[in-house]
Specification:
Length: 126
């Protein structure tokens, strides 16, 4: 009998398969760690015509880090602006090829977050 056909090897393989199939818990960032790194998560507020209309409805737009997640953005907003977001939506914008003044180039890919606040909450963007 070969190594792979022994009866003792089968239960060990089954245990490994069960261990790999177990779902992993998402690790949320701690509240203490995020305020220190809030400026590394949220780069800047996006000031556009579309974001101005959204801010009237309580939806604010921010450029964020590529590694940022919804819980991280929520905690960073709490640390920077002292408001609690009701919802956070994230959009990845792919890089695009542009042609400006006879030269070809690429617009950089960005990741942005739409942060919805409760009625009555506001963020003062300077």
């Amino acid at each position: 009998m070969g190594i792979f056909t022994s009866k003792k090897a089968a239960p060990a393989k089954a245990e490994k398969a069960v261990a790999k199939a177990a779902p992993k818990k998402a690790i949320a960032p701690s509240v203490a760690a995020v305020p220190a790194a809030a400026h590394h998560i949220i780069y800047r507020a996006r000031i556009t015509e579309k974001s101005a209309f959204g801010s009237e409805k309580g939806i604010y737009t921010f450029d964020i880090s590529k590694e940022a997640t919804k819980p991280m953005v929520s905690l960073a907003i709490q640390a920077l602006y002292k408001v609690t977001p009701a919802a956070v939506n994230i959009v990845n914008i792919p890089r695009k090829q542009v042609f400006i003044r006879g030269k070809r180039g690429m617009k950089q890919a960005i990741k942005k977050a739409y942060v919805t606040l409760k009625k009555g909450d506001k963020i003062e963007i300077v």
